[in-house]
Amino acid sequence: VANSLRWLDYGGFDGGLSIFQKKWGSQDFPDIRTRRTESDPNSLRLLWEQQQEIAPGHSWDSGEFWLTPHAGGWAKGIEVYRDYVKQVSVPSNLPSNIRDDVGFQSIWMIQGTEVDSRMAAFRFTDLPRVAADAKRYGIHEVVPWGWYIYGAFPIMPLPELGTETELLQGIQRSREMGVNIAPFISVQVIPNRNAARYGAPPGTENWTFHPDLIPMFRPYYTKGSELTEVSTNNPLWEQDVIAALRDWIDKGMTSFGFDTWSARSQGNERPGLLTTTETIRRLARAKDPQSTFSGETASHIEWESQVLDYPWDWLDYEDAGPIATVLRSPRLNCNVESSPRVVKKCFAENLFLNVMPRKLDQPNGTALISDKPDLAAALLMVAKLRREFLPYFVSGTFIGDSVLAQPSEGFVRGYLLNGKLLVIALNTDDQPRTLTIQSNLALWLPGAKRYKATCYNTDGKNVAEISINQALWTAATRTLEPGEFAMFEIQAK
Description:
The protein contains 13 helices and 25 strands. The chain is α/β, with parallel strands linked by helices.
């Protein structure tokens, strides 16, 4: 299953059972199935399904399965699996802006079927303006979409947006102010007219989109964006992609987002797309050590974690805590158009925001962040808080809502770092309220009898220090307005 772990946990805040499979990086990903019956509704059958046909005279190795009973929430049960992943995974070395920032911004420069330059949301000369605006809100990565005709070789900038010189100057000027421009490319899903070169059959997927069309997406009367997918194990395709991107790297474009990053294995061989991506990254980092590479993921995180800094996936907020605690790369994205609440939840969970504000009646990515005051204010808040508590996010261990011993009225997440526990509580209600937090500190800070808690308000200001004289800690925040934080940093005395 894409974007998932070969691990699961069944339980609650007071304990459970974790299960994982020791088969990192193999092609035969499992499915998980559940079954409850009307005759016995209080029972559950939990099935780990391997869809594997074994021919006569052949064999198949399932790998080891480990079962771990545990006290506390899922973050205790996942500890054994996390240790295993550290032994077998080869994580990507994250550039500093991806590691440290709250997120990135995507802009949609012009629609693929548009030929009138006056309809462009942004031109190449606007890139420094977009970069300066993003930087105000703690963002140093901008991903432009719609800057060339996707799927075509060679990769040529759209003349409706400006010249190649203006594009490269925009990238350079943005880099000088500390903002990286990582244009989104599409080279795996290509127009049918280019399919024969790679021996690919013509496709029938129609990806035509424009706000003025009826319907806006996939109208029956135009087939200009019918595409097919090329195998990423095709040597000629790999040669063309590396040559095209090497040319842009030599010119100064060193970071890329990759449309439909879809690795496929042939037998037990390593997927060709991993090698292709590693070659591109090596060329880019020779030119710019802080260059980035993202991808719209369509394979499996066990492969993506090796080469991607962050995914560019069409995802709203999802609880991805187990992945965040096991893998530091890629930093999982969450798309946000305007919601301050989503911004704050993603900050607490260390998700990488994909900020995509839009103009009225236009697609995502057509507006500046400063055009949306509520969104901008939330980004300013969480960018400041992330800087203040940065070591917890980049070096700590995320334990999510497992920090709780009982459910809370708010959104509560926790981090461990060097014998300290950071608890972040957010009021997600539409009304002011006090949040109650109960945690078994002995699970996370073992061996202590007394603790000290430093309390911070929503601005990150130290507002109180309290003593805790027992491991089962219960605290009530002050009354929090909607969208306000309360934070506690706890250590053994």
